[in-house]
Amino acid sequence: MDTGRLRTSSPGAAPRRRWLWLWLLAGAALAVVIGGAVAAVVLGGAGRNVPESLLPPAEPSPTIPPGDTAAVFLGDSYTQGWGASEPSRRWSALVAEEAGWVEVNQGQGGTGFVTTSGLGGCGLAYCPTYLERVPDVVAAQPDIVVIAGGQNDLAALAADPDAVRAAVTETYDLIREGLPQARIIAVGPSTAQPGNELIVELDEWVQETAASVGADYVSLIDPVVIEPGMVTVDGVHVNDEGHRAIAERVLSGIRDR
Which of 68, 70, 131, 157 has the most CB atoms lying inside 10 A of its own CB? Predict the structure, then answer.
């Protein structure tokens, strides 16, 4: 057996092998960098990598003319307007227009009562929880506060239900304390996916808490407002038809009171 041939290499083979290893190492490093960036975007949005085309553009805070009714909408990506073809077609804008309010939109995708978000969810490096955003709601001194969502808290709810319930209660209590004369409207959690016991439980907590602070309550899951044809390509958000359906449910709910 001629083992000598296996040990013998042609001139220049060693340099070529060195260059090959350098290229492989460089490629691996680049893959780590790219993979880390992608992971940051995906994880920043509550584990969802949503197409950028669904993210509504940034918009300035509205000017509230004296005598007009200002309504702050505190919520998640549905409130922020993900999936709507333009901000004027998101459900919060439709509600405000129909009711004659000036919309102050404080929706931030991927957030919840205890859940924070990032680039993939709200378009910013960090977006705080509803509870952390209460001072901004109070500082706006609105006539009306609409608190919507909570579906981004379902994972936290499964892990630590007491923490979620405490955050729901504290959010409503602090807003009522800071805005004793404001009308508070609670819009329960919704989902484009089939409902489960967790979202029903959270919806019940929101309803109970709303009653404790004298807030109106509107359910989006009893009956379910979102139909399959209203769901966007990401499987999570709703299109213009879905936003319109949510708006009509909210308007119907608050007209009854």
Answer: 157
Question: For 117-149, what is each residue's pLDDT tens digit?
Answer: 999 889 899 999 999 999 999 999 999 999 999
Q: Is the residue at 168 inside a domain?
A: yes
Range of the domain at 36: 7-44
The strands making up 101-107's β-sheet, listed across from edge to edge, are 101-107, 69-75, 144-148, 183-187, 216-218
pLDDT cut 90: percent of the chain above it: 68
204: Cα separation from own chain's centroid = 20
What is the radius of gyration, based on Cα positions, of the chain?
25
Provide the domain count of the chain.
2
Distance CA 54, CA 62 (A): 22
Beta strands in the chain (DSSP E): 69-75, 101-107, 144-148, 183-187, 216-218
Using one digit for the tens of pLDDT, what is the confidence trace for 151-183? 999 999 999 999 999 999 999 999 999 999 999
**How is residue 103 written in tokens?**
């919309």
Asked if residue 111 and residue 28 are part of one domain, the reply reads: no
Report residue 104 as tokens. Answer: 């102050």
Rounded CA separation 18/21 (Å)? 5
Contact 94, 78 (CB under 8 A): no
In a domain, 49, yes or no: no
Please tell me the distance from the alpha carbon of residue 231 to that of residue 115, in angstroms, as a whole number: 23
The answer to whether residue 186 is domain-embedded is yes
* Distance separating alpha carbons of residues 241 and 69, to the nearest angstrom: 26
For residue 113, give the CATH number of its domain: 3.40.50.1110
What angle is formed at CA 165 by the lines to CA 161 and CA 219, rounded to 5 degrees?
110
> Longest Cα pair distance anywhere in the chain, in angstroms?
99
Residues 143 and 214 in one domain: yes
